[in-house]
Amino acid sequence: MNTKPIIDYFSKILPLNTAEKAIVSAKFKERKIKRRQFILQEGDVCKVNTFVIEGCFRMFMVDENGKEHNLQFAIENWWIGDIGSFHSEEPSKFYIEALENATILQIQKEDQIRLFVDYPKFNLIFRVFTENALISCQRRIIQNISSTAEERYLDFEKRYPSLFNRISNVQIASFLGVTPEFLSTIRKRIAQS
């Protein structure tokens, strides 16, 4: 099992000692996921926190009209999961689907709690990445209520250049809250200016 990427990720926040590296290797489980495979479906309780070693995922919901709404993407060295379901142990409203063949590391909730108790450094590490996720969420909410679709697209392009060749325009449009046709119009307008 390859835990080097997650150990490197944690060590950028706080360096890990030998015992902490060993517990990461023991508690995180590696999974190989095929393209279009789900690691979470609506109605399931999210029981794991997922770190992406390789591949690309999307988290989305389906509204009452059957329309999909992308909330998050995750690529290498990013986390993905329904944090609300994970903590409340209530059924999720989301799906998490692999957009590419992928390798992930997952930790069960009980094991994550044990990490926090037995190795307090992980409590701080997880707090830092949770705070960063909250900052991103707040930024996205502000952007959705105060920016034009074109401004949201340009920000997405600038903030996530590594996603552009990995996800379809339909997925980007869903994330931005526009139709694929409107996204095409935006891209043409930008190309012409």
**Largest sheet descriptor:** 4 strands, antiparallel
- The shape is globular
Give the mean pLDDT. 95
Unreliable residue stretches: none
CATH homologous superfamily label of the largest domain? Jelly Rolls
**Helix and strand pattern:** HHEEEEEEHEEHHHHH
Task: Give the percentage of residues in beta strands.
Answer: 15-25%
Number of domains: 2
The termini sit apart by 49 Å
Helix count, DSSP H or I runs of 4 or more residues? 8
Kindly report the spatial arrangement of strands forming the biggest sheet. Answer: 1-8-3-6
Domain Cyclic nucleotide-binding: 31-116
Protein name: Crp/Fnr family transcriptional regulator
Organism: Flavobacterium jumunjinense
InterPro entries: cNMP-bd_dom (IPR000595), cNMP-bd_dom_sf (IPR018490), RmlC-like_jellyroll (IPR014710)
